[in-house]
# Entry
Amino acid sequence: MTLQRSFTATARQAGDLADYNFAFLDEQTKRMIRRAILKAVAIPGYQVPFGSREMPLPYGWGTGGMQVTAAVIGSGDVLKVIDQGADDTTNAVSIRRFFQRMTGVATTEKTREATLIQTRHRVPETPLSENQILVYQVPIPEPLRWLEPRESETRKMHGLSEYGVMHVKLYEDISRHGHISTAYDYPVMVNGRYLMRCSPIPKFDTPKLHMNAALQLFGAGREKRIYAVPPYTEVKPLDFEDHPFQIERWPQTCALCDASDSFLDEVILDDAGSRMFVCSDTDYCHGRQQAGHHGRMAAPYREGAAE
Amino acid sequence: MTDIPLLEVEKLRKSFGRQIACRDVTFELWPGEVLGIVGESGSGKSTLLNCLASRLPVDAGAIRYRLAGGDSVDLVAASEAQKRHLMRTEWGFVQQHARDGLRMDFSAGANIGERLMALGGRHYGDLRQAALDWMTAVEMPPDRVDDLPRVFSGGMQQRLQIARNLVTRPRIVLMDEPTGGLDVSVQARLLDLIRRLVQDYHLAVIIVTHDLGVARLLADRLMVMRHGEVVETGLTDQLLDDPQHAYTQLLVSSVLGV
# Structure
């Protein structure tokens, strides 16, 4: 109960935190995480170990991303939190509220207005700019983990750039399904050196990592690793010469905003098999509807209705 | 055979605590030669093989290997990167249990292609063709290229393991009891296959076995080990027909006749 009260208290008087430090973590911890981030930025794609802290939510809910966010957030930042592309799902709402309470920073749902974006499973459709930071929540940072269970061995493989086995997995995909069926968490080579797992984003988003203007940070809380893709870094998905990397395509455009260039979620509407395809990035979808685009299932847009 | 040995092992020493597994083992291996290492369980045969393959750190001694380019390299002193590269290209290792040497969750084709992909093979069609060719070369039905190793019989798993090793055309193949645990008819076919491959690809082979019959059939030369020491070496027929050392005599006389 006291905990609950102190949370609320800090929320009300952010900036004057009696019980909690700014952004929850103590300054020593933030300094340690920043050091790890600097190292990660210096060696793109390399997994830097860090002393992951206990966060007030379970592992697997974004503790790694939150620690990275807490270490880089400043009082002037504008925070956006996405979960599966949406700003209004449980995970996104809780994390956003957590940082609101612990820092008092402004939050937004608009990708363009944000300076710091924490994300789970998606990269925003709106292109990012140089003054933005994208923080990914990562469950398993090691791309070779399911192929080689020994940590000592995977480190050696990274050290010697022995990544042939990753292609064995893609070979297996093609021989079983006729095409590379890995659809998310697609393995990429960063800066021509390190093999990296880009967290469970759909492979649709993988090309967005390449030469992105924003700084991209990856935090894995349970596995205690931080890695990074600095702005304008080469990120190349693995593939075969005769089976090049391809992103997903959909049979329809977004039912609400008619977008043909965004990642679509398939929503089953009834037991008769009817379905709709809708943008997973809610901000992008709202923006397009406001700009006058209408899909075939969209209600006529009214000012203020989206809020 | 040429005058220069492919592999020179000098005073190789390996112990596990107080237990000495290899005591000053010295021998040479020439290109295209099949060397058999025989001895009872616990005599240090497999440890020796693992040391040669850089799977175990060596306590003392030298393992000089002549590279395809002609230069000589001491594997004891070589860098990890160079050793691992050699083991994947110019060397092969066939395990006694196929499940140790195969990726059991990946199809036969992927298993055969792994070394090629590690060396930069990035064309699916070519990799698949290589897999099919090697399936044929080791007398496996090519139409089972997409099957998982676990659905293969023991003999076929062993063939697959051999194919997976030979795909980069190694110069030395180490075999640890390759026919152990197989029934005699399958064993005979596998031995025939190994004999043919050794000839076709001019392989140098070190084969560890406790089966003197296998040694007689495959090996040109034999090395008898006991308590980590080499007690006798010689041409296979000579050594088996006229054993000099008391232990070799015991070993030869222990073979059951049919």
About this structure: The longest strand of chain A covers residues 78-83.
